[in-house]
């Protein structure tokens, strides 16, 4: 539970009564919960979806169904599932709508399964649904070592596209082993200039950018004609030295203003992705998740868990992710 906006010391472990499933809900005894940058923004008081404290965050879990609501399919009882939660995932027990629950692939551990929903759904929406990436195109993946970055590499590898990624140099060997074609150390190189060099001065057809602020301006300028900029998250706010909500305001002040006329003249597109705002589109998302779970069975979806923390050490997990130490997913285990 996050008691109030602030540092990692604001995350505490507390007991609460087990929830009772209603309607078409399933009650899940959680074996693993995913940690995302949205959770860090929420803890810092920068996530609009979390305005009241104390709050329990968490968008994804894997576990075992131990009870079903009166209108849910009773055959779910006793099954291993992976689910998308509208917060509440940092718990050992949570109720989730039946439409947002899926049979866990037998080949995945609960930790691996909890690494799938948010990152792979976001990457699928960015690259396939809205990014329309094809095999003859180049995609630039910012923060390629993060959860969404690794998911994007799996999807790009499946599509057959050329993939360039930005990441710290110590992550490059692992990322290229996963399928990344070219890795750029954004800390020591001008990633925009290097991207143009690697593409013969043309730019990339698709760029995935989670940072926000002026970084989106740079990515926009690195697009090739017919290129698309997919924006998700504003993780750049986490590293800002400004206090409180000024972190977010400073980032917003540096964001680009896209004008339709230049977009038309340059044949470019921009779009945003926020999986947490798709809870009114359950059937559409179920179709995407179905494709990804088939990818697990076929072997091209390969969730990678960097590190697992006990649920009571959620603050340590936040610090680890916030410091960008991870390659892939950070998980909480009750």
Residues in β-strands, percent: 15-25%
Average per-residue pLDDT, rounded, comes to: 94
Q: What is the CA-atom radius of gyration, in angstroms?
A: 20 Å
Ends distance: 13 Å
Helix content: 25-40%
Low-confidence stretches: none
Oligomer: single chain
**CATH topology value of the largest domain:** Rossmann fold
Largest sheet: 7 strands, mixed
Structural class given helices, strands, pairing?
A: alpha/beta
Shape: globular
Number of domains: 2
CATH class of the largest domain reads Alpha Beta
Number of strands: 13
From the coordinates shown, what is the CATH architecture of the largest domain?
A: 3-Layer(aba) Sandwich
CATH level-four homologous superfamily name of the largest domain: NAD(P)-binding Rossmann-like Domain
Tally the helices: 11
Q: Can you walk through the features of this model?
A:
Strands 1, 2, 3, 4, 5, 12 and 13 form a seven-stranded mixed β-sheet that branches. This protein folds into two domains: 8-116 and 303-333, Medium-chain alcohol dehydrogenases, catalytic domain (Quinone Oxidoreductase, Chain A, domain 1, Alpha-Beta Complex), CATH 3.90.180.10; 119-275, NAD(P)-binding Rossmann-like Domain (Rossmann fold, 3-Layer(aba) Sandwich). The longest helix has 17 residues, at 282-298. The mean pLDDT is 94. The protein has helices spanning 37-43, 110-114, 117-129, 147-159, 172-178, 191-198, 214-221, 246-253, 260-266, 282-298, 314-322, and strands at residues 25-35, 60-68, 80-84, 93-97, 101-103, 138-141, 162-166, 182-184, 204-209, 223-232, 269-273, 305-310, 329-333. The protein is an alpha/beta fold. Helix 3 (117-129) packs across helix 4 (147-159) and helix 3 (117-129) packs across helix 10.
């Amino acid at each position: 539970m996050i008691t109030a906006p602030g540092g990692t010391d604001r995350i505490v472990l507390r007991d609460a009564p087990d929830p009772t499933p209603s309607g078409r809900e399933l009650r899940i005894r959680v074996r693993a919960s995913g940690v995302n940058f949205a959770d860090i923004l929420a803890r810092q008081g920068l996530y609009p979806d979390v305005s009241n404290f104390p709050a329990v965050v968490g968008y994804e879990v894997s576990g075992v169904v131990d009870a079903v609501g009166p209108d849910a399919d009773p055959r779910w009882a006793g099954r291993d599932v992976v689910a998308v939660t509208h917060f509440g995932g940092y718990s050992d027990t949570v109720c989730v709508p039946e439409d947002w629950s899926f049979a866990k692939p037998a080949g995945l551990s609960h930790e691996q399964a909890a690494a799938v929903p948010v990152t792979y759904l976001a990457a699928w929406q960015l690259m396939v649904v809205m990014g329309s990436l094809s095999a003859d195109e180049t995609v630039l993946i910012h923060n390629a070592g993060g959860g969404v970055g690794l998911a994007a590499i799996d999807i790009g590898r499946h599509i057959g596209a050329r993939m360039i990624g930005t990441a710290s140099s110590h992550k490059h060997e692992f990322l290229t082993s996963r399928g990344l074609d070219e890795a750029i150390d954004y800390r020591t190189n001008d990633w925009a200039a290097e991207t143009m060099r690697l593409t013969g001065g043309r730019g990339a057809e698709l760029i995935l950018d989670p940072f926000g602020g002026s970084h989106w301006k740079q990515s926009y300028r690195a697009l090739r004609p017919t290129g698309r900029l997919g924006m998700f998250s504003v993780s750049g706010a986490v590293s800002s030295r400004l206090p409180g909500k000024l972190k977010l305001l400073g980032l917003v002040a540096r964001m680009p203003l896209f004008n339709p006329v230049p977009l038309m003249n340059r044949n470019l597109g921009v779009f945003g992705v926020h999986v947490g705002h798709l809870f009114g589109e359950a059937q559409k998302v179920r179709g995407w998740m179905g494709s990804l779970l088939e990818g697990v069975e076929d072997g091209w979806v390969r969730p990678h868990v960097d590190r697992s923390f006990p649920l009571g050490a959620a603050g340590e997990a936040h610090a680890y992710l916030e410091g960008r130490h991870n390659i892939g997913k950070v998980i909480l285990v009750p």
